[in-house]
């Protein structure tokens, strides 16, 4: 079946360091979304990428969608303690079904 | 404005009992999704609705699980003859339009089957 994978599973960084999580799908996606889930909270939508090769920025966050629409990345510049949480990518298949990756858990050491 | 609400927030039940989990989406949201999330994992798709029509139920684990959204608003996920392996966080999400994929998640229902 269709799978969405993410690496790394965990990442511990010193405050101020950069962070990147990578998302890979076994099949071509119509779009990809990114969500953040704080400990004890629920997933919160960050962004959606639709076009091949698309790059979007939100302040210190940069999102990329691969040319083949099978992979994506989220990069955070100069992490802060408020960035702590689990980051999920979610790929939409051609039938409106959204498949979430297992997430990358980010810890930021002050 | 009100977000997505789910009830109950916590449900403890004995093996073999039926449970009904309710989701109240954001008013006017067309699409409604049900997910199951295990600790340390991403949300696992169960089923989704556009309006009152169930579009895809391929994620429902077996025929003990069913969902409905009879009037295109509130949805109920029912688990019959619960088993311990059904214990998980059940999350509901809604989105404004069909294929408009910003999903707003509810707080979830933590189900524990003893």
What does this structure look like?
The complex is a heterodimer of chains A (110) and B (114). Chain A is mostly beta strands. Chain A has no helices and eleven strands. Chain B has 114 residues and is mostly beta strands. Chain B contains no helices and eleven strands. The A-B interface holds A 31, 33, 35, 42-45, 48, 88, 90, 92, 95-103, 105 and B 33, 35, 40-45, 48, 55-56, 58-59, 91, 93, 98-99, 101-108.
Write the layout of secondary structure elements.
The complex is a heterodimer of chains A (110) and B (114).
Chain A: E1 4-7, E2 10-14, E3 19-25, E4 31-37, E5 44-49, E6 55-58, E7 61-65, E8 71-76, E9 85-92, E10 98-100, E11 104-109
Parallel strand pairs in A: 2-11
Antiparallel strand pairs in A: 1-3, 3-8, 4-5, 4-9, 6-7, 7-8, 9-10, 9-11
Chain B: E1 5-7, E2 10-13, E3 19-24, E4 31-37, E5 44-50, E6 53-56, E7 65-68, E8 75-79, E9 88-95, E10 104-105, E11 109-113
Parallel strand pairs in B: 2-11
Antiparallel strand pairs in B: 1-3, 3-8, 4-5, 4-9, 5-6, 7-8, 9-10, 9-11
Summing up helix and strand content along with how strands pair, one would put the structural category of chain A as mainly beta
Terminal-residue CA separation of chain B: 36 Å
SSE order of chain B, one letter for each helix or strand: EEEEEEEEEEE
Strand content range of chain A = over 45%
Strand content of chain B: over 45%
Tally of DSSP β-strands of chain B: 11
**How confident is the prediction overall: mean pLDDT of chain B?**
94
Helix amount of chain A, in percent? Answer: under 10%
Secondary structure: number of strands of chain A = 11
In N-to-C order, the SSE pattern of chain A is: EEEEEEEEEEE
Provide the descriptors you would attach to this structure in a database record.
heterodimer, A: 110 residues, mainly beta, six-stranded mixed beta sheet, five-stranded antiparallel beta sheet, 11 strands, globular, B: 114 residues, seven-stranded mixed beta sheet
